[in-house]
Design brief:
By secondary structure, this protein is an alpha+beta fold. The protein has two domains: 38-158, OB fold (Dihydrolipoamide Acetyltransferase, E2P) (Beta Barrel), CATH 2.40.50; 164-203. The protein contains seven helices and five strands. It has helices at residues 2-24, 27-35, 41-57, 63-71, 122-125, 160-182, 184-203; strands at residues 77-89, 96-104, 110-117, 133-142, 150-157. The chain has a five-stranded mixed beta barrel. Helix 6 crosses helix 7 (184-203). The termini are far apart.
């Protein structure tokens, strides 16, 4: 009788465990989904621009507006090219992270994005030095803290070749449209002026 009860009990427990796995999904399932996110750098750089736009606009927004706008971005993949501000480990869990400077909020403040990096790439990012330029992609998790404006999870390194292949094509497309609408001479003058401005800012 007791053995029958044990068998029934084990069977029920197993069934409940399987059901809970169906309802909520195991941690392994979630991590596999996160790790297998297909790379679409064109979409990810576009979402990155939208995230920067949200960061710049949030000071003028109410808390409700900020949450609603961020809710549309949360969970999406982004790709950023930026300067390494810090490399370290998270306070909770000790996961490797990289903080990148990806833009300017104003004259004095930078826009910083924290990427919590996959353990498989920890050895790569821990070798990075402050001030170096690198590219990371990850899934938007939260709106950041005092140091960083947003945090991304399951981050991985993107090669310069892959990134420039996408960004370079976009720049080429923009140039083609400018030449169609403004003419070749005007486009060349605009590009020359922009290059002059860039060199002047580097000298400051």
């Amino acid at each position: 009788m007791n053995s029958h009860r044990k068998i029934v009990g084990v069977t029920c427990f197993t069934a409940l465990a399987l059901c809970s796995g169906c309802w909520f999904g195991s941690d392994d399932d979630h991590s596999k989904k996160a790790q297998s996110a297909p790379m679409d750098l064109k979409a990810e750089t576009q979402t990155a621009s939208e995230l920067v736009g949200w960061i710049k606009a949030r000071k003028a927004q109410t808390e409700i507006q900020k949450k609603e706008a961020f809710g549309k971005l949360k969970g999406k993949m982004v790709a950023f090219r930026g300067e390494v501000r810090e490399v370290g480990k998270t306070a909770f869990g000790g996961k490797p992270f990289v903080s990148l400077k990806v833009g300017k909020l104003d004259l004095f403040e930078n826009i910083n994005i924290q990427f919590n990096v996959k353990e498989s790439q920890a050895s790569t990012v821990t070798a990075w030095n402050k001030g170096e330029t690198h590219i990371l992609r990850g899934r938007i998790k939260s709106s950041g803290d005092l140091q960083d404006d947003a945090t991304c999870d399951n981050a991985e390194v993107v090669s310069d070749e892959k990134y420039l292949e996408v960004v370079g094509k976009e720049v080429s497309d923009i140039r083609s449209k400018m030449r169609e609408n403004l003419g070749e001479n005007t486009t060349d003058k605009i590009e020359s002026s922009l290059n002059d401005l860039k060199s002047k800012f580097k000298d400051l």
